[in-house]
Amino acid sequence: MILWLTNIDVHKSFDVADSRTEISDVPLLSCSEAMEKLKSFREKVKGKQQFLAMYSSIFGGITTDPAAMVIPMDDHMVHRGHGVFDTTAIIDGYLYELDQHLDRFIRNGTLRYWLSAGPGDFDLSPSGCHKSCLYAITIQDLSPINFRGVKVVTSNVPIKPPQFATTKSVNYLPNVLSKMEAEELGAFVGIWLDSDGFVAEGPSMNVAFVTKEKELVMPLCDKILSGCTAKRVLTLAESLVREGKLCGIRMKNVSVEEGKNADEMMLLGSGIMVRSVVQWDEQIIGCGKEGPITQTLLNLVVEDMKSTLPAVGTPVPY
Question: Which InterPro entries match (predicted)?
Fold first, then answer.
């Protein structure tokens, strides 16, 4: 028997013989009864996100019933973390930077793994998997967008080695632990440093700075994930150089001291777009408020997402 526990604190021990654990007869359910249980569960559990539709190559179609948005337990993506993923925003009926995200998605699949390894067995090797599988789900987040400046902390969770950090695999346990650690310290996220002590990235976003000389700098992506949003920000920021608001744009090794002494610090990602950082550990960044360059870059990204330019927008064939 294989037992999985989800949403637990991996730092704490778990005693299956805990006196609080109730042991009762477990019913044997038919397929229809199991589906009814899933439907009941979905109706009771309401989160900040709504799952609108899911495609699965296993059943070769789309379902809009959240209870049916499931994948086989023997898919190696579930029990071995053998798979890759990516995220693309949908704005006014257009997929934002779909080609750029797919390029990274397919590159990871070709060079590392291809989507999920697929169902087959519970062994470590994927040799028993029948074929790779593709899953896609449309999510609507109902939580209000918050662009206020946040606090970050230096993460004590070890960063992934470059071979794994540069691949957007589903194995996100270090990222989760880094986020949990930050929240326990009253911060938004943790900031990873690379093996040489330079600024690396956040658990699901890139980092950038505006120096006192008004140069936009971003850590090199040779040891971290090359974020699509971060790359787009670098392109959009060129207009600020032409306007004289920035003196230049550069990707380089950024020391912690340089980062903490910057005029502005920001987080970049498809989920947060551009988020200002006003404090790192005990150090106030700049004047302690959202920076003007950060706000301008956010506005540029929002405008860019709403545009229908062929370079960034792919119409959804509804």
Answer: Aminotrans_IV, Aminotransferase-like, BCAT-like_C, BCAT-like_N, Class-IV_PLP-Dep_Aminotrnsfr
Residues spanned by the domain of 212 = 150-306
Q: What is the pLDDT of residue 141?
A: 75
List the structure tokens of 239.
């207009």
The verdict on 171 and 205 lying in the same domain is: yes
pLDDT in tens, 64-106: 999 998 999 899 988 888 888 777 777 777 777 767 666 655 4
What's the total number of domains in the chain? 2
- Is 30 part of a structural domain of the chain? no
pLDDT band at 63 (very low <50, low <70, confident <90, very high): very high
Q: Which two tokens stand for residue 78?
A: 């579930």
Which residues are marked as active site?
168
Based on the fold, state whether residues 302 and 162 are members of the same structural domain.
Answer: yes
Given 141, 164, 199, the domain boundary residue is 141
Asked if residue 129 and residue 195 are part of one domain, the reply reads no
pTM higher than 0.70 for the full model?
yes
